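From the shared-data thread, chain only:
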Amino acid sequence: MALPSLIIGFIAGLSSLLLFAASVVGASLALPLLMLSPLPIAIGSLGWGTYAGFTAAAAGTVGLAFATSLTTGAFYAFAFAVPTAYLCHCVGLSRVSDDGQNEEWFPMGGVFLRAILYGAGLVGIGLIVAEFDPSRLSSTLSDELQNLPNAIEPDMEETVRRLIGVYVTLIPYTAPMVWLAIMCFNIWAAMKIVRASDRLRRPSTDFSGVDLPLLILGIFIAALIVSMAGPPLSFIGAAFVGSIAMALTLIGFITMHVITRKLQTRTILLATLYITTLLFSFPLLIMLGLGIADLGLKIRQRYIAANPS
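Structure, as tokens:
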């Protein structure tokens, strides 16, 4: 364990801690800061090795626990610090091939699968431990909103209550979606940053070959059935449904990037897709369908094989 790795890990952990703490105290940029809090850990791990990554995770967790509370420190550790360090450790794993001529790297699909399963388990178990009660939370949020001066018009009160109830009910599905998106973005961004600084040992940051086993569809269907059961078991099922759905949606976006490579209007097409997604969200369903189709029909592999350049 080299001293520079420990120093970099400590600095990365402190940076992550500050980003997370700023989001907790209610800064105006709370959500972006929360989303970026794993990035320093990912950069430290990918650029300076596994020891730096886990040192950053430990430093951030201990520092946050002392600065705030053990509960906040534990949440930070399980939700961001430890999974980031572990997933980046997997990204950096390699071995010499059987013929001794090449270096084989841990497949990005394997990293992706671990993120899917961890995120689903994290949210499902977290909701059970927290004794999540959608009806009680909806009522509390509605009452708090009603107590705010000039918050809502009286004739809109019932509509707002229903909307709050819908959003709260969807939390077991949406929470793992958001978590997986945050993890994927931070690992992708860290790989780009470390690659630019010439410290990334992994030879490629191309995600076009990321794949998932077909078994994931079976897990998705089973989780969908379990999500229809009563709480708390339904929370586990819903979390797996949300996590896998987001994963397949991301696969859909990757597939779109691959199959539009030779189109002259590719930039305009992709820009329109992302802007429309941010404004209306319905393209997410289209990308989910494309991701499922790619998983079964191997659309990307067929396209790459037909267009090797």
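The two ends are 42 Å apart (CA to CA).
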